[in-house]
Amino acid sequence: MTAHDPGKTPGTTIAKRLLDEARAAARQAYAPYSKFRVGAAVLGGDGAIYKGANVENASLGLGTCAERVALATAIADGERNLVAIAIACVDAPENSPLAQRMPCGACRQWIQELAPEAEIFILGENRSFRIHDLLPMAFSLEREKG
Ligand SMILES: [Zn+2]
User: Fold this and answer.
1) What's the gap in Å between 64 CA and the centre of ligand 1?
2) What is the reported pTM?
3) Which pLDDT tens digit goes with each residue over 12-40?
4) Mind listing the domains of the chain with CATH numbers?
5) 8 alpha carbon to ligand 1 midpoint, in Å?
6) How far is the CA of 102 from the centre of ligand 1 (A)?
């Protein structure tokens, strides 16, 4: 399964459904400090969807992002073919800059390792992204091909 048919935009059914799941996941966020709830939904190759939300901690550096929770949930369930990820920053102000709704650097590194081929959808953005564009020359322990 792919995130959507080649050549189509994120407006396709799967992209919309994944963004809806990410928006729903954000309702479960534990974000008492930032009040900035984020949800993520990862699509597995067999069509399963794995959700995550940000989880903060009073020791602020220990919080984790929705993207990493969703990715870890998929991996913990045995999923290894991650074809898409949707991210919903439901508390971002309307018309907020895209940079405020994009995955952070740590999450980009996780996506690079666990879902390198995944199409990335951002709530409110009418296009999709690929990790090689968001994290060029990424750190990896894999040998270079070629
Ligand atoms: Zn992050």
Assistant:
1) 7
2) 0.90
3) 899 999 999 999 999 999 999 999 999 99
4) 13-134 (3.40.140.10)
5) 27
6) 8
